[in-house]
Specification:
10 helices, TIM Barrel, 219 residues, alpha/beta, single chain, globular
Length: 219
């Protein structure tokens, strides 16, 4: 089934109980549509929301548990209820060595891994690290009104081909500006196994409507 990642980022509109309402809406839509919706809330809200929806952490650090004040470890997000984690989001970038360490740390804790890439070439590079998914998002389109699906469909098709060649076991997700059913449908047609969205939902006056519309494009 297609996967739909909703990144809450750190928008005020999704913190605490506000995020709970969006998670509950996502749960209703996932039940109706059959789309695998996962949410990526701030670390402080993982435990609050993990009982409602499958949750992935927005980030983990390439360190083990112990004297690591301020770090976010794979063990800590797993204990809070997360089933996976984003790695190397463009707003929290890492070097390739740390990305590899995070993939390994996540796998050791049986967490689903979603490596974020800013180009088809980097998507293929990260696919060789054997994550579960690679999420490609051209940075210049993140948070904007122009989706990668409509503005740069060649980025998706190129990434699909390169990732499959690098590691056929890795699924490609695409994001950046995704906000409509058409955006999702185009991505799926081009070979993506799912999409990711953030501001289109968090900043919407009706987040449930946006979640449902994007989900419909993946069916």
């Amino acid at each position: 089934m297609p996967i739909f990642v909703i990144n809450f980022k750190l928008y005020e509109e999704i913190l605490g109980e506000k995020g709970r309402k969006i998670a509950e809406a996502a749960k209703r839509i996932a039940s109706r549509s059959g789309v695998n919706i996962v949410i990526a809330p701030p670390a402080a809200d993982i435990r609050l929301l993990s009982g409602i929806m499958p949750v992935v952490a927005q980030h983990i650090d390439p360190v083990e548990s112990g004297a690591q004040t301020g770090h976010i470890t794979a063990e800590s997000v797993k204990a809070a209820g997360a089933i996976g984690t984003l790695i190397n989001h463009s707003e929290k970038p890492m070097d390739i060595g740390d990305v590899e360490k995070c993939v390994l740390r996540a796998k050791q804790n049986k967490l689903i891994t979603i490596c974020c890439a800013d180009s088809p070439e980097n998507a293929a590079l990260f696919a060789k690290l054997d994550p579960d998914y690679v999420l490609i998002e051209p940075p210049e389109l993140i948070g904007g009104k122009n989706s990668v699906s409509k503005t740069k469909p060649e980025v998706i098709s190129s990434a699909v081909g390169l990732v499959r060649s690098a590691n056929p076991n890795v699924g490609l997700i695409c994001g950046a500006g995704v906000s409509t059913s058409e955006d999702a449908a185009i991505a799926k047609k081009l070979g993506a196994v799912g999409v990711a969205a953030a501001s289109a939902i968090a900043k919407s006056a009706n987040p449930e409507r946006v979640i449902e519309e994007i989900s419909n494009g993946l069916i």
